[in-house]
Write a structure and sequence with these properties.
With about 100 residues, the chain is an alpha+beta fold. It is about 35% helix and about 20% strand. It has three helices and six strands, in the order ββββαααββ. A four-stranded antiparallel β-sheet has the order 1-2-3-4, with no helix packed on it. α1 crosses α3. The longest helix is centred in the C-terminal third of the chain and has 14 residues. It is globular and about 35 Å long.
Length: about 100
């Protein structure tokens, strides 16, 4: 996995754990960053809330599944509303982009 990923107007430097939008650094929480990386590494795949909890919070998490929705809403506000698609009662996905750099 390369240390820099570009998707649309978002650039992620995985070595530094920094995210840029249109060249400006985004201030993401650890959870938001981990969610974004989970979506990027699984582009085009629908991830259920349970799968996202396993990937981001860990299998021992026993909180409310709705926390996933809240964090995704905050992440969308920062990276763009259309970046993450909702599949009702199924999960979320970041669609694969034909022009992306891995």
């Amino acid at each position: 996995f390369d240390d820099e990923i570009s998707i649309n107007n978002i650039k992620i430097n995985t070595d530094e754990k920094r995210v840029y939008k249109n060249g400006e650094i985004l201030k993401l929480t650890k959870i938001e960053y981990d969610l974004l990386i989970s979506f990027v590494r699984n582009r085009g795949i629908i991830l259920s809330r349970d799968k996202l909890i396993d990937l981001v919070w860990g299998m021992d998490y026993d909180g409310d599944h709705r926390t996933v929705d809240t964090h995704i809403r905050r992440l969308r506000a920062k990276i763009g509303e259309d970046s993450i698609k909702t599949y009702r009662r199924i999960g979320y996905s970041m669609e694969a982009d034909e022009n992306q750099n891995k």
